[in-house]
Design a protein that fits this description.
Blueprint (H helix, E strand, L loop, with lengths): L1 E5 L3 H10 L9 E5 L3 H9 L3 E3 L8 E6 L6 H8 L3 E7 L5 H10 L4 E7 L9 E8 L2 H12 L3 E4 L2 H25 L10 H13 L4 H10 L3 H13 L2 H11 L11
Helix pairs in contact: 3-4, 6-7, 6-9
Length: 257
Amino acid sequence: MDVLVVGAGEIGRWVADTLTGPDAPSDARIAFTDRDQATASDAAAHRSAETVPPDADTTHDVVCLSVPMSAVPAAVETYAPRATQAIVDVSGEMTASVAAMRERAPDLARASYHPLFAPPRVPGNVAVVVDEPGESVSAITAAIEAGGNEVFETSAAEHDRAMETVQAGAHAAVLAWRLAADPVREEFHTPVSAALESVADTVTEGSPAVYAEIQQAFDGADAVAAAATDLADADASQFTTLYERARGDGTTRERHD
């Protein structure tokens, strides 16, 4: 299986490593392309991979788009003609990605994957929408699972709705706490504040551009801000009501917009 990975950043490299891992059931051959060819060359140099220019006319069994969420529709238009069997993406947004692949590649197998982790924290859960099944998509899913990851199917709508909570809302809450917090001596930290400090360190070790893309793609931050305002303005009785609502298990708790 000849795979063109478009975008040679962390996730693109994870795709390459996953498809060529020792337990991967496929014999994938990887080529990288990136608008920064130095990045593509660096990714290929540490693997048994090659590079191709972004404007080349090569064709490949599979094109895998590992580009920013906002760039996926344009990337689909550009790279779908270079795929002969399948086109997939690992961008993290699914509604627009699946729609673009369906429109531009109606005769290809299609899937949208979202690794729900940063590559240094593999393995983990990987959401997938299989819009059009095929042998290449099955091989990619099998390789991801062989790497110890849990692949679960969803719909584009369910996935993007969930990202409002687990990404946009969670990141906004953590970053807001960090921005609002005053420095304190280590001895003052409670188990709760220490846990928040650790999570904030995790969130801020990444690229701000990635987190900005998430905030642009998904709602969720406004709901967190509104909830914080409700808590700040609540009297004792109202606070108790909000506290009891928050005590829910997270799966059955109602959302109050």
